[in-house]
Amino acid sequence: MSTQIENLKSYDPFAEADDDSGQTKQTQEYIHIRIQQRNGRKTLTTVQGIPSKFDHKKILKAIKKEFACNGTIISDSEMGEVIQLQGDQRSKIREFLTDSEGGLGLDEKTIKVHGF
Amino acid sequence: MSAEEPTKRTSRKSVAFTEEQIVVDADGSVTMVASNNDETTAMSHTPRTPPLSEALGAFTDAPAAADAAPVDAPLTEDAGDGLDLSLLKKKKKKVKTEAAAEDGDEAAPAGGDEGVDLTMKKKKKKKVVKEDEFAKKLEALKLEGKDDEEAAAAAAADSDVQEGDMEKGTGIWQHDETKTINYDLLTERFFALLSQKNPDHASSGTRSYKIPPPQCLREGNKKTIFANLPEICKRMKRADEHVTAYLFAELGTNGSVDGSRRLVIKGRFQQKQIENVLRTYIIEYVTCKTCRSPNTELSKGENRLYFITCNSCGSRRSVQAIKTGFSAQVGKRRKNKV
User: Fold this and answer.
1) B325–A114 CB contact, under 8 Å
2) CB-based contact (8 Å) between B267 and chain A?
3) Where does the record place the SUI1 domain (chain A) (predicted)?
């Protein structure tokens, strides 16, 4: 009961408006998962737009261990920090991003998987 | 429901259906005239024939209907007939027979079927729908099935079994036949005729948007040629450049267009893969989100935004511009600078 009241108190119309605009901006910023062909059968997976509240380095470390692949973080001037992984990891990384327990627990709608 | 009502209260039934029937009739005459001139002759007989035969006349050859109409007119009068034209109602009531009630039962559903069909026709008429293979297949299937059915019916040769040639109008399909036709048979006939006369409509329920499959050839070892891109773009009513840009953005490559307007994509891609990308393109940039119709137009509206305008429902929505995201540097050489 007391928690409910606290929640109500925290409702400040102006703060909310500010917060809301930030939110919409964030929902528009999709996380893009792309695939690129390299020579032969080899491919690269790039993950672009992971929110900055997450530690990219730690994510990469976890991913590398889980997917058994190598990867780097590339800081692009336009796209920000991009995680680049070896091989086609699109479905795996999507699961990782949406998984609320072992992963980041992001909303499915914010993720866009590109490629064939 | 409509079949049950008449048995209980005949008088009420005629009142309930009068308006509806007329509406259908009006619809029918409008569409019939447009589709086939001969059918106007059939329509002229409709006041004297029950709606069932009217439906038949509309679909089967008009002359046959015209021939049959005078014969069956005196035999079949019923409440269902009265619904057809309110003016002739009095005449009909005089010669009411027992068969009338029975006939009325079957006439009502038939009329309903017709009504559904006509409204469909009216809607679809404006669109110029290309005949697709699926419709043909469906028709073939239907015809086959019907033949089988007829053979089976003939083999049984029983009074119970409803037989007769639908096309020729014999047996159960005769105009002066007063026996109730099974619902199965009626629906079968409805769909058979529909697929026969209007193949476009027959497939409307499960009408799928068809584009020719992309033709992929391999050029050398590292390039893929997408041969029928212009054809597909034409089908989707989109600019080649737009589709090309989308393909490149999604596949994470680049490429060029060769002399015969074929698209050369860097990298090895299979037909299936290109197909998938095209599918997403269609979902995002072609189909209308409101009515799912692919009959849309992409235009550059104000503010440099792209808009999709639906031609069938008129809705308009903005779509995102195609953006190429981050592309990792592949290969040894960097592109021009850091």
Assistant:
1) yes
2) yes
3) 31-101
Q: Which residues make Cβ contacts (< 8 Å) with residue B146, sequence separation at least 6? A: B166, B188, B192
Q: Does B186 touch chain A (CB under 8 A)?
A: no
- In angstroms, rounded to a whole number, what is the distance separating the alpha carbons of residues B259 and B242? 19
pLDDT in tens, A71-81: 999 988 887 88
How buried is residue B114: exposed, middle or buried, by Cβ count under 10 Å (0-12/13-18/19+)?
Answer: buried
Backbone angles phi, psi at B153, to 5 degrees: -65, -40
Which whole number is the average pLDDT over B211-229?
A: 89
Whether residue A39 has pLDDT greater than 60: yes
Chain B residue whose CA is closest to A78: B326
How many C-beta atoms lie closer than 10 Å to residue B270's C-beta?
A: 13
- On whether any CB of chain A is under 8 Å from the CB of B324, the answer is no
Strands A31-37 and A111-113: parallel
pLDDT of residue B84: 45
DSSP string for B37-54: STHHHHHHHGGGS-HHHH
Most confident listed range (A4-18, B59-73, B219-233, B284-298): B219-233
Q: Which residue has the higher pLDDT, B279 or A6?
A: B279
Q: What's this model's pTM, rounded to 2 decimal places?
A: 0.51
The span from the CA of B327 to the CA of A44, in Å, is 10
Q: How many CA atoms lie within 13 A of B202 on its CB side?
A: 26
**DSSP code for B303:** G
Bridge partners for A72 per DSSP: A84
Of B269, B273, B326, the CB nearest to A46: B326
Mutate to test the interface with A, among B326, B333, B335 (most CBs of A within 10 A): B326
**CA B123 to chain CA mean position, Å:** 10
Q: Residues near B133 by Cβ (< 8 Å), separated by ≥ 6?
A: B210
Mean pLDDT, range B17-31, rounded to an integer: 40
Cβ-based contacts of A38 with chain B (< 8 Å): 330
Strand partners, B14: none
Q: What is the CA radius of gyration of chain B?
A: 28
DSSP labels, B262-287? -EEEES---HHHHHHHHHHHIIIIIS
Q: Tokens 């800081």 — which residue?
A: A75
What pLDDT was estimated at residue B160? 54
Segment B280-307, tens digit of pLDDT: 998 888 888 888 888 888 888 777 888 8
> Per the structure block, which two tokens stand in for B83?
């619904």
pLDDT at A68 over 90: yes
